[in-house]
Design brief:
Shape: elongated
Strand content: 15-25%
Radius of gyration: 19 Å
Number of domains: 2
CATH architecture of the largest domain: 3-Layer(aba) Sandwich
Number of strands: 12
CATH superfamily of the largest domain: NAD(P)-binding Rossmann-like Domain
CATH class of the largest domain: Alpha Beta
Strand order of the largest sheet: 3-2-1-4-5-6-12
Order of helices and strands: EHEHEEHEHEHEHHEEEEHEH
Length: 269
């Protein structure tokens, strides 16, 4: 069995990841940790996910548990994630990173660190969303420059970053389909007298409200018609299930940064 360490074990995603790890035939929940000020440190994680103790106690910090597992699953916060990656590189322990908000500088550092350990990093672990990434690129390439591309994303009011990592990835894939660079053509806010929309723009807009788990729609709008591709998350379980799938896949792989396209075998899709 592959031994899993869960970061942010007391949080909403940590608890759902724990459930999916328990459902996976090749994984076992080996260790859990939280930030130093978390009130659940010292508690059995089973009390949080099922009310029954499972013998895994939440410890303070990754360093306290890293020797106990084969792979770390992390859905925490980008600053913490980078600290975990540095420690994983030192110990050569595999990681699955679902944290969003990683900067280009973070991703460059992660690529450098991953020369010492294998890592799956994706802004979205959902199988359907990763199919959507592929569809965004293919659709943009087929429809071409006659169609305006706009992306709308919606999440709960506790989400700390905007636009979502998923929306940015959709923008990057669509831009690649029409030979553009999202850094050059992306528009992330519109207000006031802005003039006509530039033909090569790719707009990404964000909604934050209540308990929306996650919704993304990419619009391809042309003369007299439009095509919409949407994904709506009903719960966090599909993210957690994807992370568990990635954890089972990454252990034993060579050093480097992989994504869910690699995990799911979608390279040629």
């Amino acid at each position: 069995m592959i031994k899993v360490i869960i970061a942010g074990a007391a949080g909403r995603m940590g608890q759902r990841v724990a459930h999916m790890v328990g459902e996976h035939p090749r994984l076992t929940y080996a260790a859990a940790f939280e930030a130093a000020d978390n009130k659940y440190i010292g508690r059995d994680v089973g009390e949080l996910i099922s009310a029954n103790r499972i013998g895994v106690v939440i410890r303070e910090g990754l360093e306290a548990v890293i020797a106990q597992g084969d792979v770390i699953i992390d859905f925490t916060f980008h600053k913490a994630t980078m600290e975990f990656a540095r420690l994983a590189a030192k110990h050569k322990t595999a990681m699955v990173i679902g944290t969003t908000g990683l900067s280009p500088e973070n991703l460059e550092e992660l690529k450098d660190l991953a020369r010492n350990f294998p890592c799956v990093q994706s802004p979205n672990m959902s199988i359907c969303v990763n199919v959507m990434f592929k569809l965004a690129k293919k659709t943009a390439a087929i429809l071409g420059d006659d169609f305006d591309i706009e992306i709308l994303e919606a999440h709960h009011n506790k989400k700390k970053d905007a636009p979502s990592g998923t929306a940015l990835k959709l923008g990057e894939m669509a831009a690649a389909g029409v030979n553009r660079n999202l850094k050059e053509v992306g528009v992330f806010a519109r207000n006031g007298i802005i003039g006509e929309r530039k033909p090569r723009e790719i707009g990404i807009q964000s909604i934050r409200a209540a308990d929306i788990v996650g919704e993304h729609t990419i619009y391809f709008a042309g003369p007299g018609e439009r095509l919409e591709i949407s994904h709506r998350a009903h719960s966090r379980d599909h993210f957690a299930k994807g992370a568990a799938t990635a954890a089972a896949w990454i252990v034993g792989k060579g050093c480097g940064v992989y994504d869910m396209v690699d995990v799911l075998g979608l390279q040629d899709f």
